[in-house]
């Protein structure tokens, strides 16, 4: 039975209270995890990258990412320090990738 089902059955408002009474066996946990992963894989289409893509295309992708990061960094609620770190790392990655061409 799912943890949410046990919560409903016991009438708990908080899942944390249910955890006090529920014991989860490692085997059951593994089965539930694999079931959930299977559902996700069926419902989500992940983009695929071609292994044959050239470095020029990769640097273009990184340039687009830099543009997006820069624009988000300008938003009033943005964490400027964290965006600055991401921008510097992306620039470094773009430079290193360009040297592989």
Q: In this structure, how is the largest beta sheet organized?
A: none
Beta-strand content: under 5%
Give the domain tally. 2
Order of helices and strands: HHHHH
Rg for CA atoms: 23 Å
Helix content bin: over 70%
Total number of β-strand segments?
Answer: 0
Q: Report the principal-axis shape.
A: elongated
Structural class: mainly alpha
* Mean of residue pLDDT values: 79
Tally the helices: what do you get?
5
* Weakly predicted, low-confidence segments: none
Report how far the terminal alpha carbons are from each other. Answer: 55 Å
Structural notes for this entry:
The chain has 101 residues and is an all-alpha fold. The chain folds into two domains: 3-43; 55-99. The protein has helices spanning 3-10, 15-21, 26-43, 55-73, 80-99. Helix 1 packs across helix 2. The longest helix has 20 residues, at 80-99. The chain is elongated. The mean pLDDT is 79.
């Amino acid at each position: 039975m799912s943890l949410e089902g046990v919560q409903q059955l016991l009438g708990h408002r908080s899942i944390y209270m249910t955890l006090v009474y529920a014991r989860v066996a490692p085997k059951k946990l593994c089965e539930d995890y694999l079931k959930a992963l299977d559902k996700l894989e069926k419902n989500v289409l992940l983009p695929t990258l071609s292994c044959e893509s050239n470095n020029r295309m990769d640097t273009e992708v990184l340039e687009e990412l830099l543009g997006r990061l820069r624009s988000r960094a300008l938003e009033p609620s943005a964490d400027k320090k964290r965006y600055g770190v991401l921008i510097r790392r992306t620039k470094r990655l773009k430079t290193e990738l360009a040297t592989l061409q």
